[in-house]
Task: structure prediction
Amino acid sequence: MKQLEQPLDDAFKKLPQLPENARKGLATALPWLTLIGGVFSLLTAMNAYRLATIADQYLSGMRAFGYGADVAGVTSVIWLSIIILLVQGVLFFVAFPALRSYKKSGWNLLLWVAVVSVIYSVVVNLFNGYLDLSQLIVSLLSAAVGLYLLFQVRSYFTVGGSTKPVSTEPKPVEKVETPAEKTDKEL
Result:
């Protein structure tokens, strides 16, 4: 994991950083966004399953008459999509408790979800029977934005975790007045 994380971290450190309060807010919202993502992933997987069974029935009928050869690969892409969506949904749900306690293990799971999404996008675009360059570019740009945001909150998630996000910025040092300065102000 560190072999993947370190080069990405180095690359994203070169980009402009979000303001501290935005990063803190994102770190606070991340567990709940992950939970919502898990629900949507599983719902999408269920709907894709319904679509795949209908497509299989339709294509089976077409193959019986010799017409299904050109679209036979469509269902394999749909089944791959269902598997990826299920894996992502499960990883989101597994990451939720760790993210709630700001543990690095939850953040690591989200990094794996992002990597799996990128691999899936590339594989589907290359083996779908045609190359949809615009879809590939949008998928890669979306992954880059997601990884950027994920690496913006990386410092809030530690091995031990905490109950709330801890600021990574040093706090300003308050000037302590000496007894002599206090008496000068009183005069």
